[in-house]
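Schema walk-through. Below, the input block comes first and the output block second. Nothing else is stored per chain. Lengths vary across the set, and this one has 257 residues.
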Amino acid sequence: MRRNVPLRWIAEAEARRVREIARARQAERELLHGEPSREADSVWLKRFGRAVRGAARRVVNGRSGPDCAPEKFTDSVDADRVLVALLVTDIVDSTRRVAEIGDWRWRAVLDRHDDATRRQIRRFGGREVANRGDGFLATFDSPARAVRCAAAIAETIAALGLSVRSGVHVGEIHRKRDEISGIAVHVAARIAAVAPPGKALVSKAVHDFVAGSGLVFEDRGSHRLRGLPDAVRLYAIGGADGCRDANVIDLTTRQVA
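--- output ---
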């Protein structure tokens, strides 16, 4: 019976859908960049068309269904956007410390800080994205691991006589080779900037994602973060049971200034 299903109406319906999506993509590009990219549209339409024709053939040949994998098609707009947990760390009063101990000694302390931080990022399955000199940016597949890493870094770096503040956030980023970008990166950095010395703050998104993980948080209220239009609700890792790992870490926090 399926072999008698005409291919023409399927192709026509999908062709209309292709044109609708193309118009929407062109309007979005004009809004963001001020001009359309007809060359990109042409390539995109050809790829989409091949996927449509393949799907239509499978219907006609009676091979549609869950056991029949569709032809590979990826929208180039979202291909490099992924959801990750972001950790940003920052050494407190790094400029003052350099002035106190001098460049040579600071370089030695900073090397120990970098080595210790990288060990914790690797330990919790994170990926180092950038070392900004006085802090790190890292991504994690798990927000709970990002939170535990922040706690472990604070404890480890304190033993070096340094104080580190951290911010953890969850959001979509754009990944291009070894670099990442997106508003989520800025949010994580702003959270780290308002964290008390030696402590870590997390966004409400992180708080909600890790429900059931055993992590305990203290509500620090809504905060206006520099450059962001809306207030962000922040939480601190709470108490001795807030970050249970191979080593129990006490991260009882103070009110954010």
